[in-house]
Automatic annotation (TrEMBL):
It catalyses: adenosine + phosphate = alpha-D-ribose 1-phosphate + adenine; S-methyl-5'-thioadenosine + phosphate = 5-(methylsulfanyl)-alpha-D-ribose 1-phosphate + adenine; inosine + phosphate = alpha-D-ribose 1-phosphate + hypoxanthine; adenosine + H2O + H(+) = inosine + NH4(+). It comes from Fodinibius salinus. It holds the Pfam family Cu-oxidase_4. This is Purine nucleoside phosphorylase. Belongs to the purine nucleoside phosphorylase YfiH/LACC1 family. InterPro entries: Cu_polyphenol_OxRdtase, Cu_polyphenol_OxRdtase_sf, Cytotoxic_necrot_fac-like_cat. PANTHER family: PURINE NUCLEOSIDE PHOSPHORYLASE LACC1, UNCHARACTERIZED PROTEIN YFIH. Keywords: Hydrolase, Metal-binding, Transferase, Zinc. GO terms for molecular function: copper ion binding; hydrolase activity; S-methyl-5-thioadenosine phosphorylase activity.
Length: 256
C-alpha cells in the first residue's frame, strides 16, 4: 500500500475475495517508516504505549490516508483482555471492551495487538463484520464463540462467515505457568517439549471458530510468530513497555 507520502506494508486476508464488499488489513511494523520525535521505530499505532500522542496520531492519519479510510468513521477498543463485545454504530473509542461488531457500511473496526491475536470476522452475505482482541485471557473467556453468537443474533450465518487470525505468539514462544496452562484443554498445551508449559493459542482459536460453526475452508490462520520476527512485528514479550502495536482493521465497503 502506498500514497504520495510514504509506502506501508500490510497483510490482506488471502480468503478475502477481491470482489468482496468487505475490506480488511493487518498492519506490519514497517521499520522503514519514520517520523520526528518517535520513541519506537516503525508504524506504532498503539495509544497504550509510551509513544508521544502526537506521533501515534500522525501514524494513524498516515495509515488511514494510505488505506482510504475516513478517520471519523473508525471505532477502536480500549482493550482490557476481556470477553466484552459491543455492537458499534459510530466512530470513537469504546471503553473496557475487546470485541467490536457492526453492520454499518463505511465504519471501520480496529483492534491493536503485539503478541495477542487479532481476529477479523465477516459475513459478507448478511453484511456483518467483527474485530476481536484475543490474548489468552480473552480466548479462555470465550470471546470468539460469544462473538459468533452475537453475529448470529444479528442475522449472521456461521457457515457463511469467514475468519482471519493475525500473526501472533507461536507455541514455540508462548511459555506460561501452570496456572495459565490449566485453563486450556490439554490438547492445546505442550507439557513435554519445554521446561515449562507452552500454549498453542492459534490452534485453540481455530478450534473455537470451527466449533462455532465456521467451515474449515473459511478460516485463515497466519503462521508468523510476532516474537520470532522482529523485523516485521512488534512484540510485547520481546520488547516490553517499549513495544509498539500493530492494528487489524475491517469495514463493509460504503458502496455495498
Amino acid at each position: 500500500m502506498s500514497n504520495s507520502k510514504t509506502e506501508l506494508s500490510v497483510i490482506s486476508p488471502k480468503i478475502l475475495d477481491e470482489q468482496a464488499e468487505v475490506r480488511a488489513w493487518f498492519t506490519l511494523k514497517n521499520p522503514q517508516y519514520k517520523v520526528d520525535d518517535q520513541l519506537a521505530s516503525g508504524l506504532n499505532l498503539g495509544r497504550n504505549t509510551p509513544e508521544h500522542k502526537n506521533v501515534i496520531n500522525r501514524n494513524r492519519t498516515t495509515l488511514y490516508e494510505t488505506l482510504d479510510i475516513n478517520p471519523q468513521w473508525v471505532a477502536t477498543a480500549d482493550q482490557v483482555h476481556s470477553n466484552k463485545i459491543e455492537e458499534i454504530t459510530e466512530g470513537g473509542t469504546f471503553k473496557a471492551t475487546d470485541g467490536l461488531i457492526t453492520r454499518i457500511p463505511g465504519l471501520t473496526l480496529a483492534i491493536q495487538v503485539a503478541d495477542c491475536a487479532a481476529i477479523l470476522l465477516w459475513d459478507e452475505h448478511n453484511k456483518i463484520v467483527a474485530a476481536l482482541h484475543a490474548g489468552w485471557r480473552g480466548a479462555v473467556a470465550d470471546i470468539v464463540p460469544m462473538s459468533i453468537e452475537h453475529m448470529t443474533a444479528l442475522g449472521g450465518d456461521p457457515q457463511k462467515t469467514k475468519a482471519f487470525v493475525s500473526p501472533c505468539i507461536s507455541v514455540a514462544n508462548f511459555e506460561v505457568g501452570h496456572e495459565v496452562a490449566e485453563q486450556f484443554p490439554d490438547q492445546f498445551v505442550d507439557y513435554e517439549s519445554y521446561k515449562k508449559p507452552h500454549v498453542d493459542l492459534k490452534r485453540f482459536l481455530e478450534q473455537q471458530l470451527r466449533e462455532g460453526g465456521l467451515l474449515e475452508s473459511n478460516i485463515e490462520i497466519r503462521s508468523e510468530c510476532t516474537i520470532a520476527n522482529a523485523e516485521q512485528f512488534y512484540s510485547y514479550r520481546r520488547e516490553g513497555d517499549q513495544s509498539g502495536r500493530m492494528m487489524a482493521l475491517i469495514q463493509i465497503s460504503e458502496h455495498s
